[in-house]
Each structure stands twice: as structure tokens, then as C-alpha cells.
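Worked problem 6 (solution included).
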Amino acid sequence: MKTPFLTASCGFAVLLSLNSSVIAADKPLEVVITAGRKAQVLKDTLAPVTVITRADIQRWQANDVADVLRRVPSLSIVNQGGAGQLTTLNIRGTNSNHVLVLVDGVKIGSATSGLTAFEFLPLEQIERIEVLRGPRSSLYGSEAIGGVIQIFTRRDAARGFTPSASVSVGTESTRKANINLAGGNGSTWFNANVGYDKTDGLNASPAMNRPDADGYKNDSASVRFGHRFASGANVELSALQAKGWNNYDSAWSLEDQRQFDNQVLGLKASTPLGSRATVTAQLGRSKDDNDFISDGVVTYSANTVRKTASLQTDLKLGHQGQVSLGVEQQRDALPSGTLSVNDRITRSTFAVYEQPWGRNHLEVAARRDKTDDYGSSSTGSLALARDLTPNTRLKASYGTAFKLPTFLDLYGWGGSPALKPERSKNTEIGLSGSTRTDWQWSATAFDNRIRDLITFPAPTYNAQQVDKSHIRGVELEVAKDLGTWQVRTTATYQQPKSTSGSTEGKWLARRPQTQAKVDVDRNLGRGSVGASIQAFGKRYEDAANMQKLGGYSTLDLRAQYPVAKNLKMGIKIGNVLNKPYETAKGYHSLGRNGLMTLTYQPK
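Solution. The predicted structure is:
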């Protein structure tokens, strides 16, 4: 189906020709953490990073985390039936378990399945999201083959007391409420937030012959506290919890429910050592608990606890050079008796060196991860850049990455303790720049080869490790922020293909070849209006490419207006044209839907 991508691509081209403005992905002096495990000015990083702020989330009036992330270049979402249903994502055509996810620097996700429950991450608890595209195992270790997503919980105010609240109602009997309290005095700050999210939902999978709505409920809370001492030392504590349930459809019972309890705790402290060094220590604990209930009986539990500890030193070398050295330990644990092995410890060392000289820039990183009773993995990356003009930069990079097998891969039914890590080699080259009229643009070509992929083929469903894939693509971004207009545009063409076995030459399942995305907003003084276009080309449900999923496009409209002092009303209509589409075969996606939100925030 060529129409959706062609339509969005034409819109993309028209926007480039308009003398209107766009919201710049590279905002002046925007600082990011994820690219180098330390604070860096975004324009100085050599890796492609997308930043999503709280202001973006509020302006888009997003429904959930997936609704936010689907705007990221080269990222596609697979959802199995609406809010609270299983949601996975693919970055640059890699597998859904090839992305590493952090919350306030703490690694989350299930060591059992290898997936992160994006469907349960509470959007109202989030202040900021950074998405790094491309491999980063050289800094973060296992899973960072396709990219790294770091989520930061709410931090609203540095001085004074700033309360805020919001309530929302929408289609499918959706109702949401959130209260946020924030304050500080310059040296000490805090943020406390509680949220409620419930919907009656869709009939997630009509193919299962269960003609009922599959609802979802999520109660969430987060706390962040920080203090800066006179010596320059900082300490920060963060906590996040999301707890609730979702109903889903299956072929073997009449009523199925998943109860979840996800928690993240983090403690971080840093202190300067003289004028040229900073030491940072961090402790983290994340819990991913899931009970699957069929007809009132718990049939399966998938629970993981991850504990991490890291120590990092950042040193300034010479006039502009920097080096970071660190050690890290991660312990993944399952409840006793879940599998034959319920504990895994990985100890790691890493280093990254950055050096600009003249118009040239260099970044080198290396890491070694050693897992008890399993083996060692070494990864590295090299990035070079040259400023062709004061406003144009040419970049090239090469990086290796890996992913450890999950507990189920190793010790579950059909698993094998002899499995090796999945490994990748990624090369990319990019050109980026800006114009005198403040246009920001970039074009990046990437080539990722992945081997030793873990599969469970029929009819035995025993683990095998012979598959390979080759993913090539080009992604484009254009952005500008001027006057009353804000626009963000991206387009991607990619070829995610299998290169081995019976599926050699076939497209990897559920990954589109083309995608284009446009967000347009205009400030009207007291209020604002906006629109989003999302277009994805065809994909296939299965590895053999026998079941085709057609391409599709959606249009969302939104508006905000202050209805009273300190009170703003927002209205969003999603999928305005009511286009039916599937991201997973047999599972519904939202048709035309609406959400109205009232937000109270004193000024």
C-alpha cells in the first residue's frame, strides 16, 4: 500500500518549501544525559538523539507513552489491542528486545522475557524522554543494539511551590486524574506526583471470539528529591510505581487478566574532585511483577528484580578533552524455584574518550561485561565528525553491540543454556546542519548486521541460534522554531531483512519499510491548535512473509484554550478519518477517538 507513505511524503516536501517554522529538535544549549552517560550539549553529541520534553507531551495531548514515542524517527510501535495491551517497539528495524530502557538512570524491563512493559509506564509521571538511535552497548552493555531510551520522572520547579492538577475524559469511557506538587529553594527541590488512569478499552482481538471490551487500570505515583551542597556535591533520590491490571483475549479461557506491579528506585550522588574531575555513584532497583489470571486462577507469574550499582569518574583532559571511566554491577533475580537458575550477576567496566580539535571531533568507547557462569562480552564504538562549515557537520561511526539471552531463552521450555549472546555491527554516516534562518536538518544512513539471533522454530520450538539479519536505511529530519509556528518532520526508508535459513531475503516481521511523521502546532495567543500525521508502509506479520499487514496513515487534531484563570482546556481527536488498521494481525487499533483534558496550574 503506497498511498499512506506517499501522502505523508508529499506533506513532508511541502513543509520544506513553506516559509513557516518548526520546533527544533536541537534547541539552543539543550543538555542530554543518555548519549555519553553524562551531561552534554545536544548539538555536540555524535550520536542521533531525540528529546521529548514535558511541554511536548502536554502540547500533543498524548494518550500514553507509545503515543509519544511513535513520533521518534525510525521507531515503529506494535500494539495488541489498545490501552494497556502488550506494546512493543522497533528502533531502526531491530527486534523489540534490542532496546535498553532506563528510568532516572536505572535499568528496567524483564530479565524473564527481555521486554519492557511500555504499556504500563505512566505518562503523567514523566518529565522528559531521551531516545538514542543506534548501538550503545559500549556504554550500557546488553540490549542496546537498536538504541537506548531514558525516561526522567517529573521535576517541575526549582524555586517556590508549584502545584498542578489535571483530569481527562474520553472515548471508551477513559478517565484520568493527576496531582503534582513541586517546589524548591535553589539548593533543595522535590516533586511528588500521583496519577489514575482507567478505560473500558476495546475488544482487543475479535479473532479470539471473545466479544467483550478489554479494560485497563493503572494507579501510579512518583517522587524525586534532590539537594545541592555548598561544596558542589549533589544527591538525588527517585521512586516510581505503577500498579494495576488489564484484561486481554486468549483462545483457551473465557476471562483473562494480567495484574502488574512495576517499581523503580534510584539513589544518585556526585561530587567534584577539584576543578577537573567529578565522581558519580548510583544505586538502582527495579521490579517487574506480572500475574496472569485465567477464569479467576493464577496460571503463570513472571517476576524479575534487577539491582544495579555503578561508579563513574569524569575527567577533563587538556583544553577540551574528556574521559569517563566506570565500573558497574547488575544482578537479575527471579523468585526461588521459578527456573533451574534464578540469579545472574554481570560485572562491567567501561571507558569513553572525547576530543575535539579544530573542526574535528573524536569519540571512542569500550566496555567489557562478564556474567557469572556464562562468559564475557566486549563491545566498542568509534565516532568521527568534521565541521564542514560553522553550521554543517559530517559524521561517521562504527559500533558493536550485544544482547544476553533471557532466563526463558536459557532455562525455560525449549531453551538451551548453551545459547550465546546476539551480536551486531553497525555503521552509519550522517550530515546535519542549520541555516541562517534557523532551520535544523539531518540525514543519516545506517547499516546494521546482526547474527546469532535466538529463535524457537516450529515444530519442535527448541531454541536455535543460526539466524542473521541485515538492516539498511536512511532517516531524514527537518525542524525549525520561529514565531507562532512549531513543526517537526521525519521520514525513514529501511530494509529490515533476514539473511539466513528458510527466510533468507524476507522482511523481518512487523517492521515497515517506510514511515513518515509530521507534527504541526500554532500558537494563537491565549490558545493553540495542532495536527499530527503518521504514515507507515506495508509490513508482514510472519517471518515467511505470507501474512501481509497493509500500510496506513492517521491524522490527529488538537486544540488548547484557557477557560479561566489558571485553568486550560484541551481537546484532542485521534484518527480523525477513522481509518482501520492493524500493527499486529488480529488485534484492533483505535478508530476515531477523543480526549478532553482540564489542567489547573497557578501562575
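Discussion: The longest helix spans residues 3-17.
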